[in-house]
Amino acid sequence: MQARSALFDLYGDHLRPRGGRAPVSALVKLLAPLGIAAPAVRTAVSRMVRQGWLHPLRLMSGPGYLLTPKAARQLDEASARLHRTGRVSWDGRFDLITLRLPLSRQDGQKLTFLGYGMLGEHTWVAARPGDGIDAVLTEAGVPFERFSAGHAAGSKGAADVVAQAWDLPAIATAYERFVAEQRPAVAMINARSSDEEAYTARFQLVHAWRSFLFRDPLLPSSLLPPRWPGVTAATFFDKQSTRLRPQADRFVERCLVAASRGARVGFSES
Fold it and tell me: What is the pLDDT along the chain (270 residues), one digit of tens a residue?
């Protein structure tokens, strides 16, 4: 697990509800159970500041970092998608984008995050308009046109579009692998487990689940195969992340309090 990715998980899952800020000593404490060393945390924080995701500030407990408005918006959107909230039925029309120039790999990942799939080098499609898609393409500096389009062949044509834009069998396999790999780790956590153990297991669960933000466009059920494994995986994730949340929250609070107390007595995190 890379430090930058873990920091996004930490802020999105634990620190955003607590004001989106934390002292750097607490960030180090909270990522240590994941095997991420202090120098890696500080390097990743500096990189996120340069990229406009974090803003340095002085807290009562020492130097800290606050989510920027851009980061807060993206994490809020990611949270809604992680917990599969706000799903809507499909009206039978695709959001179709045609580009004058191909996108860079980085900008293509941004479209993938928003639920778009590539039909061709210059053509992208989504089952519904993605929030902020115009801003993403404008920032990329690529001239584009957008259309609301229904397939002339009806449901069969729509299925062909989906098959071309997304590798649903691969996504289905990834969901099945997610449950198979995560189930043993979370099953080991029980009432006798420490808060740190529960926090670590839950963090790894959420981290693995977050990867589906870049894999699964969250298509409506009418465009998915029957018995879609994403439904089973989402139920598993919701149940286990909720079960482990109280212990994980206790560990987070302890780390934040320890960082605050350490600052008051002149303690510095190595």
Answer: 899 999 999 999 999 989 999 999 999 999 999 999 999 999 999 999 999 999 999 887 778 999 999 899 888 888 888 877 555 678 888 999 999 988 899 899 889 988 899 998 899 999 988 878 898 899 889 899 999 888 876 677 888 899 999 999 999 999 999 999 999 999 999 989 999 999 999 999 999 999 998 899 989 888 999 999 999 999 999 999 999 999 999 999 999 988 877 654 444 443
Domain ranges of the chain: 93-149, 168-250
Q: Collect all residues with Cβ–Cβ distance below 8 Å to 46 and sequence separation of at least 6.
A: none
> Among positive and negative, which fits the CA dihedral 12, 18, 20, 21?
negative
Task: Specify whether the CB–CB gap between 217 and 114 falls below 8 A.
Answer: no
Percent of the chain as helix, strand, coil, to the nearest 5:
60, 15, 25
CATH code for the domain defined by 168-250 = 1.20.58
Could you count the other beta carbons within 10 Å of the beta carbon of residue 104?
12
Nearest Cα residue to 96 out of 122, 115, 119, 124: 124
Q: Do residues 102 and 144 make contact, with C-beta atoms less than 8 angstroms apart?
A: no
Task: Indicate the pTM of the whole model.
Answer: 0.86
**In CATH, what number does 93-149 get?**
3.30.70
